[in-house]
Every structure is written in structure tokens, then in C-alpha cells.
Amino acid sequence: MDVKPNITAGQCERLLEPLLGRSAGYARAIVGNRADAQDMVQEAALKLWRSIASFDPRRSFEGWFFAILRNCCRDLLRRRATQPLCAGIDDLPEKTAEAQDWEALRSSLGRLSSTHRQILELRYFGQCSYREIAGALEIPEGTVMSRLHAAREALAAAYRLENT
Amino acid sequence: MKPIENHELSGLIDGELSPERTAEVRAAIEADPKLCGEFERLAALHADWSAAAAGAAFQPRAVRLPRPPMSLAAAVAAALAMLIVRFLPKFTSAAVGIGIELAALAAVTGLVLVGAQAMSSPRGFPHSQEVDSSA
Fold first, then answer.
1. DSSP-assigned letter for residue B89
2. What is the largest distance, in Å, between two alpha-carbon atoms of chain B?
3. A49 and A89 in contact (C-beta within 8 Å)?
4. Do A9 and B129 touch (CB under 8 A)?
5. Is 0.95 exceeded by the ipTM?
6. Chain B nearest CA to A104, separation (Å)
7. Between the CA atoms of A46, A48, A50 and A54, what dihedral angle is there, to the nearest 10 degrees?
């Protein structure tokens, strides 16, 4: 994505617009509920805008946004003095099958190391490409594939453990 | 051909291999039942997890970033122009009054356009809360 240092607020909003849906799902997977996820997306967008002059164009803009969003979510969890994957989940009177599915996935991710969890959250909840993941985690693009593969094997084992 | 590494199965599932490598890995999968089984296992897990994670996604409200306020000088100039439009024609002939009124309207329009441009510009925006860009 071509991001110029003299970008205007309107242009920045237009760059962020296509990222909002998947970033909301990503934030929700970390903070555990929709309302906080919504707030975190807004907060991350503001933080990104305030530091837009320092953006390194060699880095993925999307990855940078996800990195800022992750920090916002973790700060929120720290403020609550809770662990990222033990935070309250959506308080719905009746959980839909969809909600049960993503919460089960979130629960399995909670069994993994933070390295594996982070990359899988970006891939599945953030629907990030390898370039975006590399930008978010500040690792070489070539490392993403091997790390993601190892993380998948770890998640498969965690899934097996939970379902036996 | 370079031997197939296990993590390339992940790359294939994610569509992140080069076209040449995609063809090589696909050919290897077709030729090797064990590799084929491994690929199918991973692909099935990937499909399950993708479907599960999709349930968390939702469309949040649109992001609205702050714009710098219109400068004081522009605001004063706009107010003066409005006063001219309102009162000056009373003291002049009709033709001159209309001319002044049109000129003032043009000035106001120009100021509004300049103001709108200033509001969409990042210049003057308080970048006081720098974020950790290494996040």
C-alpha cells in the first residue's frame, strides 16, 4: 500500500476502511468481547494517525496497523489486570454456534506459546497475508511460513487434547 | 527439483508460494500418498479454523480521524466577509452593491474551500502522543 508521509486524515481513513472488519475480529479474539474490540479499533486508528509521519514505507501498512491494534488490546488487558486469553467473553444470553466456534478456537489458542498464538491470531482472526504478518511481528517474510506451520501443528495438538 | 519441506504445505494452503513452486509442490503431493494425506489433514484443519474465526468478525463503526481546526485568521476573514455581504449594500448604489455582494460571496466560497483543505491536512495536527512504531 502506498502511504505518503503527507497523507491527509481523509486519505488515512480510506486506507483503514477495508481493514476494519478483520481488525475488529482480531481485536475481539484478544479482548474477548465486541464492545472493547470496537473501542480498540478506534484507539488503534487514532494512534496510527498520530504517528503516521514515522511510518516506514518498507513495512506493510496493514501489518503496522495490526501491531498497533495488538498493543492497544494488550494495554487494555493489562489495565484490567487480566490475562489476554482469560478475559471475559461476549455476554450473550444464548450463544450462537458461530460464537461457540470462535471461542473454542480462542480457548485452544490459549494453550499455545505466545509466539504461536500471535501468528495464528493474525492469520485466522486478522486474515493477514504473510507480508502483513511479517509487518505486524517484524520478522522476515520467509520466517512466517515455517513459524505458521509449527504453530498449526501445535494448535492441532491442542485441539486434539481438548477433544479427547 | 528442490525437496518439498513440510512448511511448504502451509504455504500452499495459504496461497503464498510462487507459481513455479506451487506447481512443484502440487506435483509432489499427487505423486506421494503420504504427503497427500498430510496436505489433506492440514487443509481440513485450516478450513475448520478459518470458519470458526470468521464468527468473531464484525463490521465496526467507521473510523473518524481528527482534523485540525480552521485557523483564527481564516475564521475572522470569513466573519468580516459575511458582515460586508450583510450591511454594505445598504450604503451603495444597487449596481455597486450587487458587485460587492458577489465579490464577498466569492471570497467566502474561497475561504470555505481553503478551510476545508486545511481541515483535511495533517499539518498542524498535534502529534503529541507518538505511538511505539516498533509495536
1. G
2. 96
3. no
4. no
5. no
6. 8
7. 180
pLDDT greater at residue B10 or residue B110: B10
Q: What is the dihedral of CA A92, A93, A97, A99, to 10 degrees?
A: 10
Closest CA of chain A from B83, distance in Å: 32
Tell me the pTM: 0.75
Give the pLDDT band of residue B123 (cuts 50, 70, 90).
very low
- The pLDDT score that the predictor gives to residue B135 is 45
A157 to A101, A109, A160, B45, B131: CA distances (angstroms): 17, 11, 5, 11, 37
Angle of helix A97-109 relative to helix A141-162, nearest 10 degrees, comes to 110
Which residues in chain A come in under a pLDDT of 50? 86-87, 93-94
- How does DSSP assign A38-88, residue by residue? HHHHHHHHHHHHHTGGG--TTS-HHHHHHHHHHHHHHHHHHHTT--GGGSP
Cβ contact A95:A109 at 8 Å: no
Q: Which of these, A124, A34, A113, A23, lies nearest to A70 by C-alpha position?
A: A23
List domains and CATH numbers for chain A: 9-162 (1.10.10.10)
Shortest CB distance from A50 goes to which of B60, B120, B129?
A: B129
